[in-house]
């Protein structure tokens, strides 16, 4: 089954304790992206990746890191989480993102993060 | 950067009634427009997209949207809603300048009542 898998589904942590949220897709997609969803703000893009070893900042990259060492995986790293990073996080992937050939985004089920 | 405005945070409607969910965007350059739906405890799913061509776009589940360049709008419509359409709907925009970036609106919760 084609899917985007995020882990964990729920995560409670404390300020400053490094964490990683994993994202994996089994569709051989080139493009992957991370979003955070906050009430009243919709989804905001954190980082995206066009392909292996190619990443770039979205609108709200501060406090986050990503890596794309393999095509299928795109982990989101919070080196020193703070309470303002409490949010619902979504990973998404797409076959490719090229002008005039924008494919739809496939979303994971989300990770609810609480930073105390 | 783009901005996307969904004016209605919540839209209550009775079953079998028509509905319109409004979306306006800021850019004057060529844009690509999307509507996504989020059911409870799930990720987002694509309803429809506009890249070019006909301004009336038909999507899944009987939804359609019309691109209006002069009014920078991309409103979503359905002539007759079902209880199962209860969900949150997000409008999203990308543009010709940076098609790798997607900008989402704040969402509209559609509540279909029996």
Q: Kindly estimate the percentage of residues of chain B that lie in beta strands according to DSSP.
A: over 45%
Outline the low-pLDDT stretches of chain B: none
Shape, per Cα inertia axes of chain A: globular
Which class of secondary structure composition applies to the elements of chain A?
mainly beta
- Count the E strands of chain A: 13
Radius of gyration of chain B: 13 Å
Strands of chain B, total number: 12
Terminal residue distance of chain B = 41 Å
Order of helices and strands of chain B: EEEEEEEEEEEE
Number of helices of chain B: 0
Structural class of chain B: mainly beta
The first-to-last residue Cα distance of chain A is 36 Å
Q: Which spans of chain A have pLDDT < 50 for at least 5 consecutive residues?
A: none
From the spread of the alpha carbons, the general shape of chain B counts as globular
What's the overall average pLDDT of chain B, rounded?
90
Largest pleated sheet of chain A:
7 strands, mixed
Instruction: Determine Rg of chain A (CA atoms, Å).
Output: 14 Å
What percentage of residues of chain A falls in helices of 4 or more residues?
A: under 10%
The fraction of residues in strands of chain A falls at over 45%
